[in-house]
Automatic annotation (TrEMBL), chains A, B:
It comes from the Bacteria. This is 3-dehydroquinate synthase. Pathway: Metabolic intermediate biosynthesis; chorismate biosynthesis; chorismate from D-erythrose 4-phosphate and phosphoenolpyruvate: step 2/7. Keywords: Amino-acid biosynthesis, Aromatic amino acid biosynthesis, Cobalt, Cytoplasm, Lyase, Metal-binding, NAD, Nucleotide-binding, Zinc. It catalyses: 7-phospho-2-dehydro-3-deoxy-D-arabino-heptonate = 3-dehydroquinate + phosphate. Its EC number is 4.2.3.4. NCBIfam families: aroB. Its main location: cytoplasm. Gene3D superfamilies: 3.40.50.1970, Dehydroquinate synthase-like - alpha domain (1.20.1090.10). The gene is aroB. InterPro entries: Dehydroquinate_synthase (IPR050071), DHQ_synth_AroB (IPR016037), DHQ_synth_fam (IPR030963), DHQS/DOIS_N (IPR030960), DHQS_C (IPR056179). Belongs to the sugar phosphate cyclases superfamily. Dehydroquinate synthase family. It comes from Bacillus daqingensis.
Length: 360, 360
């Protein structure tokens, strides 16, 4: 089986290919979307490289220059961006070069941003190796972190292709599976595409995600995201819905120190807080307990340790990109599949944080 | 008198207003193009600020936060970009903030790039204070330099408006007038709009550029640029013609150390070399001696000092953005007003460099 989505954006259309074994055909697929490519550069996450670089390299007639990216959010930094750009330039990058990212969200975000600003933009191909990257690799968001918050510096820069070989996900540790699964749950909550029901029916735990079921999950979850980013490429409207769970999530992730909590672990907690807020603010009928149970059975932490300082979290949330004129805004659910962007008072956010804080 | 051009780009249309006294109406004009602006930030070149900041600030009902940018190309650096972004974020920038650049090309390029990557893009307004900025402020090129060459890192990011008060040019030192004038001459050579004839007739020396004549010059020169960037926003084709004189120009500027030669001084020399190449390579009929005379009468240096190492210049030119697959390409003239992008052998470039090198 293999699956394909075509995603429209202001610059054209790019394919997302999902196929077991695709890693052995990388050069062919890159040259199909970038027929006038000069040099191809492979920016590879160190850990992904350890598992998959040999396979990917075997697809090339001439070995591309490889730049290894250290694991973890700390690579989404100014220093790392500068190092990567310097290495690209010193190895002869020109305007028809292609930057390909082999790795998860960190590598994709960093490499995509480097591609966006190198010579004011070169071609860019995503080769995701994590479940989380099914989300980050589609939609054209690239960027790095800033001490003031996550993803505060970056570009909208669509890839020329996303080449997804689900077989590479087999080497993922459980914690990273979980991190990606949080975004799948998010997609299931903000859309009416029936994904939540499909999950209950087919995915009791990560071991269910093999071969065709995994391709199906990736396809369905990416489809939710694709529908939204096609409607709103530059996040002027509905795209903000993808931020469901991320307002508190980003703050928890930052406050824990990048890498302390995975992105998905923090977002899972943020989704629970956002569902509490949906009840408080909109008196919404949301499947909070059901989702909490699903998260627990997939090994997620569903309460915030008391060590987190709520005032500091709130201060970080004020730097959230949805904040406007100093007013906090959250994506809440009017009901399952019906997200809405809502201004929320800091006092109510404080109450929601208490709701998700551990009792002791 | 006042003049207005409307420039189309993929994101819409932005106005270029040219008007004596416009500096006293900055806030009004910014709010006209950015009606939902939250905070406005003014990134001001230190020297421009010394002359004009009080006037510009007097146009605001509430003083915008000002970030001073040190003079000179060294501000187009990673470090300065990071400093500016940090200051913007620490002073509450959000997605509806406006970054306005008061200054010349350096400030505009740096501020525009900061606006492009801050929260993946905020509104941006150019308030040029130099003649050179008539060129750099239009067309959406933003960026910083890299040790490997000028403008190698950046974005295409169109401003929301260009607000040009020619009265601010009165404080420019002669050397900076000259630097900007080189781009006017460039526009006159690559277009058939009659600008070269107009210059011969109306602009014997900088003292001729007052009031209406200055507005007319800005309008005509910007019109040439606007016609080209509207045809080719992302430099896939004819926009490369704007690089006439810049291949050697950038190399000379970099090799002299940024700030040693002004951009325009280096470009003037680059245009002479490009006209020699046009004769050598295309047997073109170009007004080389006439332009050399015009440059001399405006105080330009028309020969390259022998201290420049041609091999080093050539190596720098290999990093030029027009280089593809290791092949140097120059914008040459088939005749006056007829530019063309042409691959040129390094040996011929070497001969052209000798042609423009001082005898002793």
């Amino acid at each position: 089986m293999s699956k394909r989505l075509d995603i429209n954006n202001s610059g054209g259309t790019y394919p997302v290919l999902i196929e077991h074994g695709l890693r052995f055909r990388i050069e062919e697929e890159i040259r199909r979307v970038c027929p006038d490519a000069t040099t191809i550069f492979l920016l590879a996450d160190e850990k992904a490289a350890a598992h998959h670089l040999d396979d990917v390299m075997s697809s090339f007639s001439a070995a591309p220059h490889v730049i290894l990216i250290p694991q973890g959010e700390s690579s989404k930094s100014f220093d790392e961006l500068e190092r990567v750009l310097t290495e690209l330039l010193e190895h002869g990058a020109d305007r028809k070069s292609v930057v390909a990212a082999l790795g998860g969200g960190v590598t994709g975000d960093l490499a995509g941003f480097a591609a966006a600003v190198l010579l004011r933009g070169v071609s860019f191909v995503q080769i995701p190796t994590t479940l989380l990257a099914h989300d980050s690799s589609v939609g054209g968001k690239t960027g790095i972190n800033h001490q003031a918050g996550k993803n505060l510096i970056g570009s909208f820069y669509a890839p020329n292709a996303v080449l997804y070989d689900p077989a590479m996900l087999a080497t993922l540790p459980e914690r990273e599976w979980r991190s990606g699964f949080a975004e799948v749950i998010k997609h299931s909550l903000i859309s009416r595409a029936g994904l939540l029901e499909w999950l209950y029916a087919h995915v009791q735990d990560p071991s269910d995600l093999q071969e065709d079921a995994l391709e199906e999950l990736l396809y369905r979850s990416i489809q939710v995201k694709a529908d939204i980013v096609q409607e709103d490429e530059f996040e002027a409207g509905v795209r903000a819905y993808l931020n469901f769970g991320h307002t508190l999530g980003h703050a928890v992730e930052a406050e824990a120190g990048y890498g302390g909590w995975t992105h998905g672990e923090a977002v899972a907690l943020g989704m629970l807080a956002a569902m509490h807020l949906s009840r408080m603010k909109l008196e919404a009928d949301v499947p909070l307990e059901k989702v909490e149970q699903l998260l627990k059975s997939h090994g997620f932490q569903t309460s915030l340790p008391r060590s987190f300082n709520h005032e500091k979290l709130l201060k970080r949330m004020m730097h959230d990109k949805k904040t406007e004129g100093g007013n906090l805004r959250f994506v809440l659910l009017k009901e399952l599949g019906e997200p809405e962007l809502v201004p929320v008072d800091p006092e109510m956010v404080e109450r929601a944080m208490k709701e998700v804080t551990a009792d002791d």
